[in-house]
């Protein structure tokens, strides 16, 4: 009787231990399944979080690439416009060159010396300075001309040499005359203090201008003028006041 009771008690303990073990095993399995689920959920969450970031990066890359293309396009267009501008400038230059070659350019013919036969020359007395006269030359030609240097003067038929020039009166540039314009030269006929030598009255005057071989006779005011060794003439000037400065 005691043996049987003992065996029954042992059996009951064994069964109880098995049940406990089975329960523990089930609990462990449940915990393990929950861990896998959490890992999957975490992975999905990470994937969800990563996907938008990747899409954003892709969009940013696309925009950057598009920006590069736009810049390249603008650069190309600028280069094209620059090339067009250069071509235009070359065209203008070539056109100007062709115009000049064909005789339609702005280059003018060189201005020649005034022709004495187309130049009106007169002489007159002046009140100041004393013992001075004013020579005037007017361009009567239909083109521009130049008066180089100074007029050559021959007072009287017996004159052996032209009247000397006053070197202090030399201008900075040659006098240019358009049609109808005039140039002037001042003439000192004699020394104001009477210090001149070989003085006397003359009744004729001949004027030479540069570029002309023959002189032009000019009528003297009053028919005659007193001339001595102090006589001088200035270079051609553009105005009468300057011509009478010396």
UniProtKB/TrEMBL annotation:
Region feature (Disordered): 34-113
Signal peptide: 1-29
Biased composition (Low complexity): 40-59
Lineage top rank: taxon: Bacteria
Residues annotated as domain DUF4232: 114-237
InterPro entries hit by this protein: DUF4232
Keywords: Signal
Comp. bias regions, Gly residues: 73-82
Protein name according to UniProt: DUF4232 domain-containing protein
Source organism of this protein record: Streptomyces javensis
Lineage of source species: Bacteria, Bacillati, Actinomycetota, Actinomycetes, Kitasatosporales
């Amino acid at each position: 009787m005691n043996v049987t009771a003992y065996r029954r008690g042992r059996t009951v303990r064994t069964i109880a231990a098995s049940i406990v073990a089975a329960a523990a095993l089930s609990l462990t399995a449940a915990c393990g399944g929950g861990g896998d689920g959490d890992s999957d959920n975490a992975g999905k969450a990470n994937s969800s979080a990563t996907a938008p970031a990747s899409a954003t990066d892709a969009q940013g890359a696309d925009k950057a690439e598009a920006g590069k293309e736009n810049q390249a396009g603008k650069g190309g267009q600028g280069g094209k416009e620059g090339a067009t501008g250069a071509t235009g400038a070359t065209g203008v230059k070539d056109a100007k060159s062709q115009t000049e070659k064909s005789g339609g350019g702005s280059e003018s013919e060189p201005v020649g010396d005034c022709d004495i036969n187309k130049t009106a020359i007169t002489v007159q007395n002046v009140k100041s300075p004393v013992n001075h006269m004013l020579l005037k030359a007017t361009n009567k030609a239909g083109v521009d001309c130049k008066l180089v240097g100074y007029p050559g003067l021959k007072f009287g038929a017996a004159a052996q040499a032209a009247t000397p020039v006053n070197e202090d009166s030399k201008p900075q540039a040659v006098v240019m005359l358009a049609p109808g314009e005039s140039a002037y030269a001042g003439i000192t006929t004699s020394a104001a203090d009477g210090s001149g030598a070989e003085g006397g009255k003359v009744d004729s005057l001949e004027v030479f201008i540069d570029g002309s071989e023959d002189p032009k006779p000019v009528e003297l005011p009053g028919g005659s003028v007193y001339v001595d060794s102090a006589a001088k003439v200035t270079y051609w000037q553009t105005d009468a006041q300057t011509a009478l400065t010396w």
